[in-house]
Amino acid sequence: MLTKEDIMNAIHPIEDPELHVSIVELGLVYGIEVNDSGVVDINMTLTSPACPLGPQIKSAVEMTVGKLSGIQKVNINWVWSPPWDPRERCSDDAKVLLGIY
Q: What would the DSSP string read from start to end of 5-56?
């Protein structure tokens, strides 16, 4: 069975199309659950609830995770609370890329 880490590694290359930084490094992935029947639930957010590229990011995550061995279904759940804050959610590398330091 795939683990949360396997899923995170698979989606790590997916970038926010506007910021050109990994959605994982940005901290947009709030949680992942994989059950024994191959259903993956991914809780994630966007940099803004009004982000026009949300459907593109969602599609990329669904397609990438859906291609993994043993995955039957991928559910993306948008989470707006807590709101995304780059100072708290981003990795140190992403903060450097965004000029937050």
A: HHHHHHHTT-B-TTT-SBTTTTT-EEEEEE-TTSEEEEEE--SSTT-TTHHH
